[in-house]
Amino acid sequence: MIKEQKAIDRNNPVISIRGLQKAFGSLHILRGVNLDVYKGENLVVLGRSGTGKSVLIKIISGLLLPDAGQVNVLGQEVAELPSRELMELRLKVGFSFQNSALYDSMTVRQNLEFPLVRNSRNLKRSQINDEVESVLDAVGLLQTIEQMPSELSGGQRKRIGIARTLILRPEIMLYDEPTAGLDPITCIEINNLINEVQEKYKTTAIIITHDLTCAKETGDRIAMLLDGQFAIQGTFDEVFASDDLRVQSFYNYNFTE
Amino acid sequence: MDPNSDNPNIQPTKYIVSKKMDDLFFTVYEIYQFILRFFKEVFIPPYEFKEIIHQCYEVGYKSLPLISLTGFITGVVFTNQSRPSLANFGATSWLPSLISIAIVRALAPLVTALIAAGKVGSNMGAELGSMKVTEQIDAMEVSATNPFKYLVVSRILATTFMIPLLVMYTAFVALMGAYLSVHSNEQTSFAMFFSQVFDSLSFLDLFSTSFKSTVFGFTIGVVGCYCGYNSTKGTEGVGKAANSAVVAAMFLIFVEEIVIVAIVNAFR
């Protein structure tokens, strides 16, 4: 099912990237990326493994520095921000990791409390408990609150990872391969969750994936990263109606495998 | 055509001396930056008191059984090994003095530091290395938490505070082991034994041991955290981080021992 199109204000990008370049040693990953992400939309970045999709969102969140170009998030140049301002920006930009990155020595409750306690030091214990239970309920995993990450399934870990991000009420969500390594049913659940998060928390999101079903179900707009640049952008149908052989082969590979 | 020819940031790799030497100097520079960052972060709030106490418990309390055993054995064995040499000169009455100087000046700090390097250093290297490769450190960073302060500063402070305490404890346990050996062979009383022990120790001995232990603790913390925090290459990197933390910390402990002993002897 293709996602229903929403009215999105295309005048005010919350993320604006111009001429972004990034290399690792002699490997040139991003070669002048230009991208705008608008408030309230889910942008899916599609591309093969190793094309720099994850690098792109790590630069947006300030985990990596660009070699050249501008990355403007919520009106601030990420690469030029001093650490204190970068910390404040990160409160507004949630990051859901490919492997969930849950703190494996902590319970689910402690995982969720961790960012909250450190960033809202005046909260009372009852308020912290309420917040934790509220986001766990939103991802449908309230019953796992006292479990350790090692006791959870892959899909549950993904959901808890998203819940840990949501607890800071971010304006922007960055999802790194949200459906990677999951069975088809769990993939559908995660796709639905991404859409629910967008509706309930009014987030803007970049979803990194090479899963076309995920792209179709969650994306308001698709951007295809090929050879270090966005080759084509548009709705799912617009992108895959393209004559570009690289786009066609990506589509055919996904749906004929 | 070179696929990277359009990137002005990519230059051909040039080495100043050779790759290995350049890497070595680069690592030394990185450790220097790591230590500078520690001293910068340690004074800036927020302070992670809860985590510091938790790490002190991990480093100190959880090392007690191993430290007790090794300290006791060190005291007994050193006494038993020293006795025949002194007996040749009819000087076994000097055993308490000899033992106290050896234990307090050298054995207790070294034994404790080496055991802590093995137990605590490897644990820190593996734990932080594992967190690094599973992106848990990145997850802390993106949730607006300073992972360096939470993970590194707390651990370095814990080893710096706890190793001197463990050294004192080891010295006490080793002296108790030595006393049991001396008492069973020479029938020396407890009061007499410890009277001789304290008579032969000077303020400089106690000060240099405390200072040395603090330096050892700081070294174990810095090396363990540096190796773990900068580990790469997945699970192989975690193993390497744990191994490097132990080897590098032990090597540095011996180097520091030589340097500090030379400096202290200049003041005797």
From TrEMBL, chain A:
This is Phospholipid/cholesterol/gamma-HCH transport system ATP-binding protein. GO terms for molecular function: ATP binding; ATP hydrolysis activity. The keyword NAD does not apply. It comes from Pedobacter hartonius. InterPro entries: AAA+_ATPase, ABC_transporter-like_ATP-bd, ABC_transporter-like_CS, P-loop_NTPase. It comes from the Bacteria. Keywords: ATP-binding, Nucleotide-binding, Transport. It holds the Pfam family ABC_tran. Residues 15-252 form the ABC transporter domain.
From TrEMBL, chain B:
It holds the Pfam family MlaE. InterPro entries: Permease_MalE (IPR030802). The keyword Membrane applies. The keyword Plastid does not apply. Keywords: Membrane, Transmembrane, Transmembrane helix. The chain crosses the membrane at residues 59-78, 98-117, 156-182, 214-232, 244-267. One of its GO terms (molecular function) is phospholipid transporter activity. One of its GO terms (cellular component) is ATP-binding cassette (ABC) transporter complex. This is Phospholipid/cholesterol/gamma-HCH transport system permease protein. It comes from Pedobacter hartonius.
